[in-house]
Amino acid sequence: MTKQKTKPAKPIPVKTIIKKDYTSYWLIAGLLLSLIVYLPSLVAYSNRGLAYKNIGQWEKAIADYSRAIEIDPNCTTAYSNLEVAYKKLRSEKR
């Protein structure tokens, strides 16, 4: 018998896991907070920023995107998301 090589499991995107409702986004933000406490990372801050963005928590999203940029200043996605969050925050304050 020959051994079959197994492929490593691919991570499931956050968008696939959660529904489009506030409760789910708050839940995922809470879970990511737990992860950030033990293992702060670009991915954790970016994903929590996305969760906050989806529930309109622009200040929290901005804080998380900014922290992601501190971790990896070359992450263009974090810069793009940060720009969108600032624009949304400005438009809501008008």
What does this structure look like?
With 94 residues, the protein is mostly helical. It has a domain of 54 residues: Serine Threonine Protein Phosphatase 5, Tetratricopeptide repeat, CATH 1.25.40.10. The protein contains 5 helices and no strands. Helix 2 packs antiparallel against helix 3 and helix 3 packs antiparallel against helix 4. The radius of gyration is 16 Å and the shape is globular. The model has no long low-confidence stretch (mean pLDDT 77).
Structural class: mainly alpha
How does CATH name the architecture of the domain at 41-94?
Answer: Alpha Horseshoe
Proportion of residues in extended strands: under 5%
- Tell me, what is the CATH class of the domain at 41-94? Mainly Alpha
Look at the structure and name the CATH superfamily of the domain at 41-94: Tetratricopeptide repeat domain
**CATH topology-level fold name of the domain at 41-94:** Serine Threonine Protein Phosphatase 5, Tetratricopeptide repeat
Count of DSSP-assigned helices: 5
Mean pLDDT: 77
Nearest-angstrom radius of gyration?
A: 16 Å
> How many extended strands?
0
Gist?
The chain is an all-alpha fold.
List keywords for this structure.
single chain; 94 residues; mainly alpha; Serine Threonine Protein Phosphatase 5, Tetratricopeptide repeat; 5 helices; 70% helix; globular
